[in-house]
UniProtKB/TrEMBL annotation:
Residue ranges annotated for the STAS domain, each copy included: 20-99
Protein name per UniProt: STAS domain-containing protein
Gene3D superfamilies, A to Z: STAS domain
Domain of life: Bacteria
Organism annotation: Thalassobacterium sedimentorum
Classification via Pfam families: STAS_2
Length: 99
């Protein structure tokens, strides 16, 4: 569901779920809480496999954003997820790395 690794200055997290929603957001939020930057400059969450996100999923991502001191990048959101992020204007506070 969630895997992580460190590169030079980045904590890289991959979400391997089709949907980030009420059915799994609490579990993912708990997994995020177990992660730490450990001196790295930023965190990158690869959400390329996430095809659907709801308010619970957004809440889990924003919780992680606060946890890593606003140093969060979302990598490769699908067009559907990107449209939700843009609708909520989250692309203005979260860095987005397109495909």
């Amino acid at each position: 569901m969630i895997s992580s690794k460190f590169t030079d200055n980045t904590l890289e997290v991959t979400l391997s779920v089709d949907a980030l929603d009420a059915s799994n957001a609490t579990e993912i939020k708990t997994a995020f809480q177990g992660l730490s930057l450990e001196g790295r400059e930023r965190a990158v969450v690869d959400i390329a496999q996430v095809n659907f996100i709801d308010s619970s999923g957004i809440g889990a991502l924003l919780s992680f954003y606060k946890q890593v001191n606003q140093k969060l990048t979302l990598r490769q959101p699908t067009p559907t997820v990107l449209s939700v992020l843009e609708l909520l204007r989250l692309h203005r506070i979260l860095e987005i790395e397109p495909e």
